[in-house]
Amino acid sequence: MSLMGLQTPHSGYHWRHPGTRASSRFFEGWYLRLTLPELGESFAFMYSIEDPQGGTPYSGGTAQILGPRHEYLCRTFPDVRLFWGDRHAFALRHSRQSPHTSNKLNKQTAGFPFFPREPKGDKCGSSNDSSEHSSDCSIPSSSKHPQTVLAEDSSLFSSEGYQLTATYHQGILSEPGRHSARWYYSIQPVYGWGNCDRPQQSTAGWLSQFQIFEPGWQILMAHGLATGWVEWNGTRYCFSQAPAYAEKNWGGAFPQQWFWIQCNAFDSEADLTLTAGGGRRRVLGWMESVGMVGIHHRRRFYEFVPWNGTVRWRVQPWGYWQMQAENAGHMVELLGTCDRPPTPIRVPTAQGMVFACQDTTQGKLTVKLWEKQGDRPTLLLQAQSHLAGLETGGDFSATDTRGYSNFWYF
Fold it and tell me: Which Pfam families match (predicted)?
């Protein structure tokens, strides 16, 4: 399938009518994960823009990285004028450049399609390649698909910045006295969100086009293959066809409470990716509890959502995630655990970017999937991983959170 065929709904930047939101909060955030199975490490890149119209105490951008050994880097981008996002495709950029440099870039390259090139002298001399993963649903090399971005290489960042498309990701960040990072890698998308031979789906269902959910949520790429390098505190990590993932959120603020499970690096299943989540969110003025599970496996998409079945969960404030879901044809069980302390992460809230979320990229996860056949379901899949992304956020109490959702649009 072509790259355009894998593009999901909501791939573009959602900020369109500043005048209609002049007095209301708005954020858009992107999460990209790169997993290195042979090293047992991950890089999670988190970008956000708040109140892009400017003029509020919260206007600005943020870039965060959860790196090896759960080390954490965070940088702010105060000038919203230096942010750019494509309104029709997955492409964005933000930098801390001086205004005159930014104007030069905008005049020279804004909206100009080209092939990004690797910065000179940044080839990997030696490689700690991750295990290669293959899929029956792969697409041609990403180099055949030029994308719209604003700059060709990191030399155009006068200090710090990042840029990305569906097929490239590049940037430089430096936290004074703490962590630094540089990266450049290409991405070959494998799964979007849905069956490969059909139009890709909205994660939150067709009603999400009306922006009645707060916030919106879309998996942009359930699985991809990344090749390139990341330099973290001076150590170069080179990789080839490493598992990659991307999703986004947008709206006024994150949910009141949520949990999240993600993995596309399983011990014995190269062609398997899972994303699940749930919590309490606002819909047209009231709160609802919702949950979902999505699995891509060997070209098939298994979706468990409130409008096609039932979803149940039991999640502790930290350390334990359990989900059960079923639809007309299948059943799934998930169990995620983590015995190490979480890493606090900043997320957009009504009070701006605050520590209201906790993460790990080294969670343990077991997935079981059955096909319903009469009174005796058939086990289709059982897989484990020690590199799952596990998260809880918002107002989690000191006790278990249990939930159930069915026959409503998530």
Answer: Tocopherol_cycl
Nearest to residue 278, comparing CAs of 329, 332, 324, 347? 324
Q: What angle do CA 276, 280, 302 make, to 5 degrees?
A: 25
Strand-strand pairing, 401-406 and 309-315: antiparallel
High-pLDDT (> 90) share of the chain, %: 64
Residue spans in the chain of domains classed CATH 2.40.370: 253-410
3-class state of residue 46 by DSSP: strand
Which of helix, strand or coil describes residue 380? strand
Q: How far apart are alpha carbons 174 and 52 in whole angstroms?
A: 23
Helical residues (DSSP H) of 318-390, grouped into ranges? none
* Residue 81 CB neighbour total at 10 angstroms: 13
User: Phi, psi at residue 110, to the nearest 5°?
Assistant: -60, 125
Contact 228/239 with Cβ under 8 angstroms?
yes
CB-count exposure of residue 254 (10 Å: 0-12, 13-18, 19+): buried
Q: Which CATH architecture has domain 253-410?
A: Beta Barrel (2.40)
- Please give the full DSSP string across 208-247, using - where no structure is assigned: GGGT-EESEEEEEEEEEEEEEEEEETTEEEEEEEEEEEEE
Residue reference for tokens 């949990």: 259
CB 234 within 8 A of CB 180: yes
Whether the CA torsion 404, 193, 263, 75 is positive or negative: it is negative
Alpha-helical regions (H) of 138-271? none
Burial label for 113, CB within 10 Å (0-12, 13-18, 19+), is: exposed
Nearest to 302, CA basis, from 323, 327, 322, 324: 327
Considering the entire predicted model, what is its pTM?
A: 0.86
Span 41-73, pLDDT tens digits: 999 999 999 999 999 999 999 999 999 999 999
C-alpha separations of 185 from 117, 137, 165, 258, 291 in Å: 10, 21, 11, 31, 33
Contact assessment for residue 194 and residue 275, using Cβ atoms and an 8 Å cutoff: no
**Beta pairing partners, 241:** none
Omega before 215 within 30 of 0, i.e. cis: yes
- What would the mean pLDDT of 170-189 be, rounded to a whole number? 96
Question: Rounded to 5 degrees, what are φ and ψ at 308?
Answer: -125, 5
Name every residue whose Cβ is closer than 8 Å to that of residue 24 and which is 6 or more positions away in sequence.
252
Determine the Cα–Cα distance for residues 9 and 29; give it in Å rounded to an integer.
16
93, 83 contact by CB (below 8 A): yes
